[in-house]
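Example is below:
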Amino acid sequence: MMNIVRLYIDPGTGSMLFAILIGLLGVARFAFKGLWVKIRFLLSGGKAKDDSDKAIKLAIFSDDKRYWSVFEPILKEMNDRGFDCVYMTASEDDPGLKSEMEHVKAECIGPGNKAFAKLNFIKATIVLSTTPGVDVYQWKRSKDAKYYVHIPHSPAEMTTYRMFGIDFYDAVLCSGQFQIDDTRDLEEARHLKAKELVLTGSPFMDEKRKKFEERKAEADSSSKAPDSSEKTRTVLLAPSWGTSAILSRYGADFIRDLLSTGYHIIVRPHPQSFTSEKELMDKLMAEFPNSDQLEWNRDTDNFDALNRSDILISDFSGVIFDFSLVFDKPVICADTEFDASPYDAWWLKRLPWGLSVIPRLGAKLTKENRGDLKKMIDDCLEDSSFTKARHEVRDEAWAYQGEGTKRVADYLVAKYEELTKASEEESEKDSKKDAKKEDKKTAKKKEKEAVKEVAEAN
């Protein structure tokens, strides 16, 4: 019987091989492009001008459809201003592909390495993304992209990104001052060049809050609104992913504890869990299938799940801030003994800001007090002292509430104008240098011709 040998390539080696492949493709691409330009130039009698690869003014990259809510308000604002953008998504079913905006071109550039293969050669003035890790693994900075801008997809910790998450961005649009402070501390600890950090607030949080208030007003005015005294409480379990997260640490036992409360349970794992922890997810979903009491939620947008829930149980996921700051509801944070070693937080040698404020937002769940989960849920929902603390944390994490979209758009437009002006000035300098060189060549040529004429006359 033939033995089948399975080859395993670790992420670092895979990234290196991918980088080598991309480098070879890049050399071939630019060599072919240069040859094609020369051919067009000769065929046109020296009059052809190559504008087939014109730079995109603003390219926005989304690695998953769930981040459309981050970019939609920004793109709408840029469209209203008549500013041309290209929205690039890795998801074939991204809602952004169906949006109809005159100044926004939306395209699917494929998943994984297929997307990175295109991004690594992109020609753009500004690239905006919520994806960490540029220039760390497969996604490399393009030599034809001038400025990379990161926008977080949560008003929470960027230090809980996997290590080196934002090191090679040029700028970061921050929702709160703590993000600026943490980033500066990381730069100092790792001796990094200082990035441009701009306090803009959070466009998608503004939109989510607006939507929540509209839904609440509709419910309040509706005669069909349910009586809260008769309503069964709904508990949302929405953890992060990885070895420090709830489902990895506690697994099936924790779901059993939730079901024993008698409350309606919504389980919404982090989308990355279905990729990085697929075996665990398959096992849990098979053991606890959808029922009248339990539902697994994988909606692209988490608004409905958050809006329907009375309380959230999580760990160090950024959804904690969506839930408590937008929906103004309490949370229970499970103590999973956070291991900072894979994350940027390791370099700070202190508890990340997001984890440090969680005790102010709700209760802390430990191995010792997990025995009576129902009582903890009830106590947390009935304790009004958390309300004031939530509002204080909201002000710390979410600056310029209601102004985020305008501030982000203002920044992008101003940065584009700044980069374009700098590029034009550089081109003008280069043109003057070329003109001087040409003048010198012409002068030398005339001098040689004059000397030749004198020699011939004698």
Summary: The chain has 15 helices and 13 strands.
